[in-house]
Design a protein that fits this description.
Rossmann fold; 6-stranded mixed β-sheet; 27 strands; Immunoglobulin-like; alpha+beta; 5-stranded mixed β-sheet
């Protein structure tokens, strides 16, 4: 042990005598072995000194921030003679200037070395002025990173160490042992006192980001002498090479006060408190529904099929709107092409003003009659709008845009007659989707006829042979909108089911029964049981055939 200490003091004296010739700064050399002490003994120091040392030791050894070149911190120095504490080396504290030394793999670095000491090694004097040293290239790099000119390029009589960026944290690297010319241990040494630092560190906040109950703050701590420790909300945090930090917290709904405490290596303390608040809480807004998209799975083409699509939202002779009925019809046009496989040339669309009584009758008696291929065409009819039954409930009507609810038999389209006219075209099959009701109520809160405050219950009617009819609601119910999707409730789930959701047995085809089951289950759930879609006809008829 004595021999080791003797060799250590020889190396220290050697380093001291060499460095005096350049700057008068004491630079000691510790052993090249990279070890750390887990429980150093600070008892030989005064209580106030122990506080500083324990703080530095705790930060650098326990948390190991990568402050300088990614190396671990192994020793601290307070401008004087190095003193051993286990495997660390601490300098005489009486002078009050704390320095930090790294030592690993033959490299050493010093934290807190004054600019004047850096320049004394980085620049060398010549007859015409100063130039950068070719011996202490590490110190040259440090000076340039700090923005120091060290008098290089200035007149020979000037010796100025100017600092272009006082906010930068120094990252100096001392010369290795091999770069120091040997001298005898008897060489004397004098020390150059550092600039006194009585100012606390500067704490600045860069951002405060809230993500629900979690908040992240980012900032930077700076001090000329160097930062010993930063504590945020009672816990020590690691710093980046520029003194930056990031910390995250849980913030309760009542808010949270966070205190940031920073100590420099001389023991000066700075604090900053901030109150963190959570952003506005998101309230439950009810269920959400996926957008309709008919362009997914491809289907087989049905070249001889026809589709008549009718949608009326705004009527000429009643203020009661059929919300989203026009949008339902326009969207179903794409489903007729992409899910029923009908060519666009075989689809007729009548929406709002175009869906008057005359145009609807012409579409059925002329266009369908003339376009149907005898015994080969599958005919599809989609209607979204108002429907109404007569006073007795025996007859059901579909209301065109110019229909008058008080003159049903004269201005509306009787369902029974509509079906009879279509059947006369000698089709192969007819499938009808009716997003309407016959009770006299509407998709909103209005009644179609103000003098009828009580809903009418329509009686079930027989349908022609070869027809499959799917209606939005029972005879005394209301066909409701699905506000979140901005569609009629029946229409939305009808089209969503045709995308493939209704293929219950995954056989790549959807029957009328499968589609009705899917629509009925979803409509009953979303209407809280007040709307029940109904199906008449052949439940086994295949409506959608995927490729």
């Amino acid at each position: 042990m004595i021999a080791k200490l003797h060799n250590l003091f020889l190396w220290s004296a050697l380093a001291i005598s060499v460095c005096i010739g350049f700057s008068g700064t004491v630079i000691a050399v510790e052993p090249t072995e990279c070890r750390r002490t887990s429980n150093p003994d600070f008892s030989q120091f005064l209580p106030s000194q122990q506080t500083v040392l324990k703080r530095v030791f705790s930060q650098t050894i326990t948390n190991r921030p990568k402050l300088w070149l990614g190396e671990d911190l192994y020793s601290v120095k307070i401008y004087g003679t190095w003193t051993p504490i286990g495997n660390m080396w601490i300098a005489d504290i009486d002078t009050g200037k704390l320095f930090v030394r790294y030592k690993c793999n033959g490299k050493a670095a010093y934290l807190g070395l004054p600019d004047i000491d850096i320049c004394s090694l980085a620049a060398e004097r010549t007859a015409i002025g100063k130039r950068w040293s070719s011996v202490f290239e590490d110190y040259v790099s440090i000076a340039k990173r700090r923005g120091l000119t060290c008098g290089v390029g200035e007149a020979a009589t000037e010796e100025i160490a100017s600092n272009a960026s006082t906010a930068a944290t120094p990252t100096p690297v001392a010369p290795s042992v091999s770069s120091i010319a040997p001298q005898t241990p008897s060489s004397s040494a004098s020390t150059t006192p550092p600039v006194e630092d009585g100012s606390p560190p500067t704490i600045s906040l860069a951002s405060n980001t809230a993500n629900g109950p979690q908040t992240t703050i980012q900032g930077r701590v700076f001090d000329e002498a160097g930062i010993a420790e930063v504590i945020i909300d009672g816990s020590a945090v690691s710093l980046g090479g520029d003194g930056s930090f990031t910390a995250s917290f849980y913030v309760p709904r009542s808010g949270k006060t966070v205190e940031i405490v920073a100590f420099d290596i001389k023991g000066n303390k700075a604090t900053k408190s901030l109150f963190l608040e959570r952003g506005q809480m998101r309230k439950a807004t009810g269920p959400s529904f996926a957008s309709l998209n008919p362009s997914g799975k491809r289907v087989r083409s049905n070249q001889d099929a026809l589709a008549l699509i009718i949608g009326v939202a705004d009527y000429e002779r009643t203020p009661a709107r059929a919300a989203y009925a026009d949008k339902d019809a326009q969207t179903f046009y794409d489903y007729a092409m992409l899910k029923l496989g009908i060519p666009a040339s075989n689809i007729k669309e009548l929406v709002n003003a175009d869906a008057n009584e005359a145009e609807v009758r012409l579409a059925v008696k002329d266009w369908i009659a003339r376009s149907t291929k005898q015994g080969q065409s599958d005919v599809y009819v989609f209607f979204a709008g108002h429907g109404l039954a007569n006073q007795s409930g025996d007859d059901m009507y579909l209301l065109p845009v110019d229909g008058e609810p008080r003159l049903l038999s004269d201005t509306a389209i009787a369902r029974e007659r509509l079906f009879a006219d279509i059947a006369a075209a000698n089709h192969r099959s007819v499938t009808v989707f009716l997003d309407t009701c016959y009770s006299g109520t509407t998709r909103g809160t209005d009644m179609l006829i103000a003098s009828r405050p009580i809903a009418i219950r329509a009686k079930e009617q027989a349908i022609p042979e070869g027809f499959t009819v799917m209606t939005a609601a029972a005879g005394d119910q209301t066909a409701k909108p699905l506000e979140e999707a901005k569609h009629g409730m029946f229409s939305y789930f009808l089209m969503k089911g045709m995308e493939g959701d209704a293929d219950a047995n995954s056989d790549n085809q959807i029957t009328a029964g499968e589609l009705h089951t899917y629509v009925q289950q979803n409509v009953i759930q979303q209407s809280s049981g007040s709307q029940t879609p109904e199906l008449q006809g052949d439940a086994n008829r295949v409506l959608v055939r995927f490729q």
